[in-house]
Amino acid sequence: MCYYSIIMTEKELITISEAAEILSVSIDTLRRWDKSSKLRPVKTSGAGYRLYSRSQIELFLNDLLNLADDWVHENSKLSPEFYCSNSAVFQTRLARMQDLLAEVKELSLIFPLIVAVAGEIGNNSFDHNLGNWPDTPGVFFGYDIHKKYIVLADRGLGILATLKRVKPELDSDQKALEVAFTEILSGRAPESRGNGLKFVRKIVAENPVGLLFQTGDAKLILTKDSNELDIQKSSKSFRGCLALITF
Amino acid sequence: MKIELKKFGTTLISRQNGREAFAAFQPQLTTLGENENLELDFDGVITFAPSWGDEFLSPLLKLYGPRLTLTNTGNPSVKATLELLEKINQESFKRNQ
How large is the ipTM? Predict the structure, then answer.
């Protein structure tokens, strides 16, 4: 780290407003990230201005989970690159991801399953929140084929609120998450939807695919051959859903 | 009657798209003979997900039961989706490989 700082030239340093522009976030968000140690400047100028390294910002931009996490918790400004305001935009981008995954040799047998899993999670967001988005509609959808992961997130009602419509007895995010991933609700009145997350569980259990799924204050980790659901209480609660798919 | 599902797209996901496909398919379905079988061919479909499948296949399974046959179901997403739809509907699809 020290060595890196020494060889870094002034040319590679950028101001907070340049960093904010690259990340498509506000300067205030960057100040907040500095205070919370989420993203700290590499140095402070003599006049007290925060300075970042371009490579550090580019690296952070590639950490999609950071960006999605900040969006669901803080409603931070989102880059159009990752934002799907409606389901038509999401379908188009999902089809593009399908084309890219199809070109990866080692994924030739399972890429349709990865696309189907991402499709079910993303479409769930639209199906369950249509007409009921509390603030920003749509989903965060980002992926990195080389690092082999996909991130999806929404600022919707969350699993507990949507499942309560058909199971009013549910009283915690943990219980709701368990039901969403385990119980087949056929002929689910008043709406004939659901069951997508059971499909996701089956795919993950039978294939080299991993899933981290968060909603409210509940967090689920699923991996291949995981017969039991590992549902934990997370320290920070938020309203919508956040999913990380690895492959 | 044989229907090639790829004509509805090669990425068959989302309830909305499944519903639209089912509605678009209705005029064709009225020409199906009383004892005629309905064959759905999955050849060329790349990704098939339960949301689309539940809107399109589940009503056909209820309407036609054993007269509905599915072909070229080897794609892993097709296989996995059909298994889940069978659980939801508590009825099996007839497959011809």
Answer: 0.93
